[in-house]
Amino acid sequence: MSKTIDVALIGGGIMSATLGALLHRLEPSWSIEVFERLSEVGQESSNPWNNAGTGHAALCELNYMPEGKDGSMTTAKAVDINEQFQLSRQLWASFVEDGTLPDPAGFISPTPHMTFVWGEDNVDYLRRRWELLKDEPLFAGIEYSEDAEVIRGWAPTLIPGRKKSQPIAATRSTDGTDVDFGALTRMLLGRLQEDGARVHTDVTVTGLKRRADGDWRLRVRSEVGQNTHEVHARFVFVGAGGGALKLLQQSRIPEAKGFGGFPITGAFLRTDNPEIVARHTAKVYGKASVGAPPMSVPHLDTRVVDGEASLLFGPYAGWSPKYLKTGSYTDMFETIKGHNLWPMIRAGLANFDLVGYLMGEVFASRQQRLDALREFMPDAKDEDWRLITAGQRVQVMKRDPDKGGVLQFGTEVVTGADGTIAGLLGASPGASTAVHIMLTIFERCFPERMPAWRETLTELIPSYGTKLNDDPEAARETLARTARVLRLVEEPEPVVAGGTAASATP
């Protein structure tokens, strides 16, 4: 007879790791098992070379404050994304304080977030964006300059070789971070294993079906030996990245109907040249090309992996029918069903500019890619950079009552009506807002348990249930606390009488 577990987490990435860590804290007696098709966890979208790792906080990403046709802008989306990232920072800080996570330097690094634009219209836009953001408590301290020497001081690689007559502008926030979500995933799942959870690698969940008794039956295939067995679970989380859509369709929950997926491949130029890397310690975002999806906003990023810094520039978009970097060329076609065909067609017809953009990216030469880099770093040399393939992103296509179907950028939470299954579709901001996503799942799937869980959740995430941006003092205190605990700021030297640091002698 197949065993029944409390929680099955499909996919060994940051989403499953975050949900598992929270559920274990809330319900220590629950049995939790993770199923990952690769030989290691955190190797698809959570892998540090497969994502930008910004710690999305809307400090530099312009797509969270688009300009309306009348020139108007609102800070609402940017503030909302920052609020969500602060939930993640608070949980990580709490886990560092109680020993769940080890040295935070292993997964998070202080890295200023900048936006850099050129051209009079873009400079005007960035100035107006800054004017709106600088008074928001969560964006306190964000700086703005049109002075080339000031910008050179922030990011020296942006200025040499640039025409002095070119209008330029930049913003900078020193609250920014670089996050290695692969390392964070391994830390969280490693601790879960130590506490009794089971993490299975080299296994693929090939089937998902509701049983008559209300539990879920998972058909699990071992990639070594190809033997198959069943696992029964009371609650299932489908956090399998691009593989989630197919499994949610197999579940036959009505909430998954009408969803389709459009895969987009990413690639980056990378350099490990220590002289270049030392000159650029920031994440610098620009403005997207016309027709480009939000995930393709160009950026020149510091990346810190295993303690070593590199620079990435991109992403350069492409197309493949795979839903995972290690997936199959039949992925997209296997998920086309009668219920999502029309929404997919309508979404495609409404996004011809995206198709044109992708065609240009697919056939771009190395020289064209380097030319795009030189718009950010004018003195970049060809020989210092190599092209690497990043992860697959699957943009959500879904039903729309007015348009028939729309292409949605972002992360979609799908939950069954009875609260026994949840899954995620979509892409950015994804990993950075994992804690907010899990809280959403709790509220939808475990409403009867939330009163009992609230005290623990508030201990772990002090701002849970409130808005930091509505309370400037709380925003300052929270940012300061998480920065201190996560070692994003240097601790001041202790001062004793006489003005020197020393330890007291009894």
Automatic annotation (TrEMBL):
Q: What is its EC number?
A: 1.1.5.4
Record key words, sorted: FAD, Flavoprotein, Oxidoreductase, Tricarboxylic acid cycle
Catalytically driven reaction(s): (S)-malate + a quinone = a quinol + oxaloacetate
In what pathway does it function? Answer: Carbohydrate metabolism; tricarboxylic acid cycle; oxaloacetate from (S)-malate (quinone route): step 1/1
> What GO terms in the biological process aspect are recorded for it?
tricarboxylic acid cycle
Give one GO term, molecular function aspect.
(S)-2-hydroxyglutarate dehydrogenase activity
Instruction: List cofactor names only.
Output: FAD
In terms of superkingdom, the source organism counts as: Bacteria
* Similarity comment: family membership: Belongs to the MQO family.
Check the record and name the NCBIfam families matching this protein.
mal_quin_oxido (TIGR01320), PRK05257.1-1 (NF003603), PRK05257.1-4 (NF003605), PRK05257.2-1 (NF003606), PRK05257.2-5 (NF003609), PRK05257.3-1 (NF003610), PRK05257.3-2 (NF003611), PRK13339.1 (NF009875)
Record's protein name:
Probable malate:quinone oxidoreductase
Species, as recorded: Agrococcus baldri
